[in-house]
Structures are given as C-alpha cells and as structure tokens.
Amino acid sequence: MQSKLAQIDDCYIHYVEMCDCDAPKGTLIFLHGFPENWRTWRNQMTHFCKHYRVIAPDLPGYNQSSKPNDIEFYQVTNLVEVLSRFVTFVAAGQPVSLIAHDWGGAIAWPLVAFHADLFSSLVILNAAHPSTFTREMISNQVQREKSGYIHQLIASDAIEKVSEDDFRFLKDMFLDENGNSALTPAEILEYQQSWQISGVLDAMLNYYRVMPQLAPVNTNGHASGPVKDTQKMKIPNIRINVPTLVLWGIRDLAFVPEILNGLDDYVPNLKVVRFENANHWLHHQYPQQVNEQIERFLG
Asked: Mind listing the pLDDT tens digit of every residue in the chain (299 residues)?
C-alpha cells in the first residue's frame, strides 16, 4: 500500500495505490463519498489488488488532499475536469474501470459521460444518476423530504453542528434503522481523526453548498418544491456509453427506489443488482457480496 500525491494545477490529490501481482489485468479507481475518504474502499482494495492495480484517492477537500478555499472549485463541472486529469495522470494511457459511491458517484456519472475514452466500465454504489435524481426532486415529494437533511449541512452553523459531541451528526449517518453502525469502532476513530484536520469540514460541506438540485424548506421543516419552478428546471441528459453495473441498497435513507426507474434510458448497457437488506453503506455491510458482483462484472 503506497501513499502518493498527484498535482493537478494548484490542487494536490492524495491517493493510495495497491498492486499485489506482477501482471495486473487493469486499473481500478475508487471514488468515495461524504463524509468518508479513501479508507472506505479497503475491503475492495485488498481483494482486487491480487489481480488489478487499484487506486483510491481522497477527493479534493477531504482528508490529505488539498482544500481549495474557492467555493466554485467544488462545482461538479469543475470536479469532473479535475478528476479527469487525475485519471489521465495515474492511468498512464490504460483504460480504467471506475467504481464510485455517494458523492464519488455524483462525480463519476458525468465524468464517464463526458470523458468516456478514459474508461472501460463503470460501477456505481448508491449514487443517484443526475438525470433520474433531478426528475425525482421535481416530481417526488418523498425524495425532497429525504434530501431535507442537506439543509443542515449548508446552514450557517453547519460546521459547529457536525463537530459537536465528537462529530455525532456524521457518525449517526452510518446508523441503520435499528441504530447499528455500518462502521467498526476502529473505522469511526480513523474518520474522526480525518474530520479534525484543519479545513476538512468546511471543504466537505462545500460539495453541498453548490448543489444545483436542492429544494427549499417549508414551515414544518420538510423539503418542499424544487429549487426552480418545475417548468424552468431542466433534467440533464447524462448518457453513459460504457458497460455499467449499479449496486443498490434498497433501504437507503437518502434516495427513493424510484431513482432506478428509467435508468436504462440514459445507460443502455446496464445491469442493476438490488441488495434488499442493505442501505446506503452496502459496501461496509456486505463487502464480500459487493466484491463478488464487481468481480463477476469485470469478467
């Protein structure tokens, strides 16, 4: 396991690389989500490094990567360009299989759509496609309510909110409906140490502060209505032209299952595998089954 840095203009992206074979089948790049870092993929990295070169970066703003102060840096369109250059740098001209979760997936969808030449395949874990997510935010009241927690993350006191009681807010995000965490005590401690790094919380929250599909809040505290009038809100046409596997925990508290409806309109070469007993953190809850599905997909 090697810890490395890639410089993309003024931004340093920290990443961890593993390869435990002489002739790797290819390169796998893993993109984490909020509020994690590269460590979320350890179960996958230790499994796939036996046959692949595996790379897991800290997204910009997270953990040991740079934390740019300019909030516009965290616009998805800019993050896509930064990550495309990162992939170009580490892939050394070889096609990449991209595997992503949560915010990593929110970046991965357009990254593969607009830079398809860099990728041979895509694997998504519980990260809504921008087109179907926007559709549901417009038409589905339940999705707007599920997204209501985001308002706490963009409030003026958000940093204080997520920091209090040893980051209780962030740790509670990993709990299931029975109050059980998807993380081990050791993993929780590692994440707490990451969240304590200067500038990390502010940078992580910037991802949400520039979200384009956020809904306003009504008087009873629930999200209601899209950001714009529905007649003015445009569903993006994000098409994926590489083989794609979607692994989805049905008990996800952040997304309605209807997010998956019509996904093949945007992703023609698509396979969807539903994990009926998993939630947003399926790669923590069912690492072996997730690895098996990815391995079978990669062939």
From this structure: 899 999 998 999 999 999 998 889 999 999 999 999 999 999 999 999 999 999 999 999 999 999 999 999 999 999 999 999 999 999 988 889 999 999 999 999 999 999 999 999 999 999 999 999 989 988 888 998 898 888 889 888 999 999 999 999 999 999 998 999 999 999 999 999 999 999 999 999 999 998 866 655 554 544 443 344 555 668 889 999 999 999 999 999 999 999 999 999 999 999 999 999 999 999 999 999 999 999 999 98
Q: Where are the domains of the chain?
A: 2-298
Q: Are 226 and 213 in contact (CB under 8 A)?
A: yes
- Which CATH number, 3.40.50.2000, 3.40.50.410, 3.30.450.150, 3.40.50.1820, labels domain 2-298? 3.40.50.1820
User: Do 90 and 103 form a contact (C-beta atoms < 8 A)?
Assistant: no
In angstroms, how far is CA 95 from the centroid of its own chain?
21
Stated pTM of the model: 0.94
CA distance 67 to 12: 9
**Residue 168 φ then ψ, to 5°:** -55, -40
Closest C-alpha to 34, from 285, 209, 247: 209
